Hints:
The complex is a heterodimer. Chain A has helices at residues 31-52, 58-80, 91-114. By secondary structure, chain A is an all-alpha fold. Chain A folds into two domains: 3-85; 88-116. In chain A, helix 1 runs antiparallel to helix 2 (58-80). The longest helix of chain A has 24 residues, at 91-114. Mean pLDDT of chain A is 79; it is low at 1-20. Chain B has one domain: Cytochrome c oxidase, subunit III, four-helix bundle (Four Helix Bundle (Hemerythrin (Met), subunit A), Up-down Bundle), CATH 1.20.120.80. Chain B contains six helices and two strands, in the order ββαααααα. Chain B has helices spanning 19-53, 63-66, 69-94, 98-128, 137-170, 174-206; strands spanning 4-6, 12-14. In chain B, a hairpin with a 5-residue loop joins strand 1 (4-6) and strand 2. Classes of the chains: A mainly alpha, B mainly alpha. At the A-B interface, helix 1, helix 2 and helix 3 of A face strand 1, helix 1, helix 3 and helix 6 of B.
Amino acid sequence: xxxxxxxxxxxxxxxxxxxxxxxxxxxxxxxxxxxxxxxxxxxxxxxxxxxxxxxxxxxxxxxxxxxxxxxxxxxxxxxxxxxxxxxxxxxxxxxxxxxxxxxxxxxxxxxxxxxxxxxxxx
Amino acid sequence: xxxxxxxxxxxxxxxxxxxxxxxxxxxxxxxxxxxxxxxxxxxxxxxxxxxxxxxxxxxxxxxxxxxxxxxxxxxxxxxxxxxxxxxxxxxxxxxxxxxxxxxxxxxxxxxxxxxxxxxxxxxxxxxxxxxxxxxxxxxxxxxxxxxxxxxxxxxxxxxxxxxxxxxxxxxxxxxxxxxxxxxxxxxxxxxxxxxxxxxxxxxxxxx
Lengths: 122, 207
């Protein structure tokens, strides 16, 4: 810990001066980030190999790489974006939930409704 | 008795006595999550458009002819690595290590530049074989979706550059810590969007 850690007194975190009002935490190896990075690389490599070496084909393959992509989001959210570490109201979870609902509605709905137009030319 | 704890976003905050600052920081970061939610809806629309149009090549080049596996592999690993170095920047910021912060932030921005450079050269190559945005429905969807992501990354680089400048001038202040937390969220979000671009556009394109 650096000497800045001792400056607890300030009531205003006004943001002026070098490190004034900012309290550094103790140094530690960024295990969380390293694990997250390794996991994200692993998921990407798996998706690549599955496609380039034709482990599966058609819909099963699409499902597998989509699942890998979703896992990749989970890794980013939990290892890098500290999604669950909140203390206050969880507005961000609500916002993301809404966005997820709209995403599924737009993308799923578009795919579904356009699946009826096979015989027509667009 | 100043009890310190890390709040949701890892920004150092004080308990009770200086609660207002904590709340304000938390509110600003929560507000940024709302922006990310709307940005996600923007990308959802573009993804829906691309998926609907991707078969409509009008006799022009399709995904299989255009997409270069080496190219998009490089772009993917560069962006994943930049997401990691951005995380490291936030980590060393919490430890008050200014030099390390400048280093990791610069590395992140440079990787971002490399990514945008590769993407621009990909677009130039596409256009040189007359696969332009107006050639077919597939290409309109492709350029709009991938281009919008590229614009986001470019904006992120400028944003990081300005924060880098502030860190070098003022050191690590609570205001800068908050800005860095927010730009970090933005960057990780763009990485998530790219994972889907790479899966839905590129991998399914060469499948």
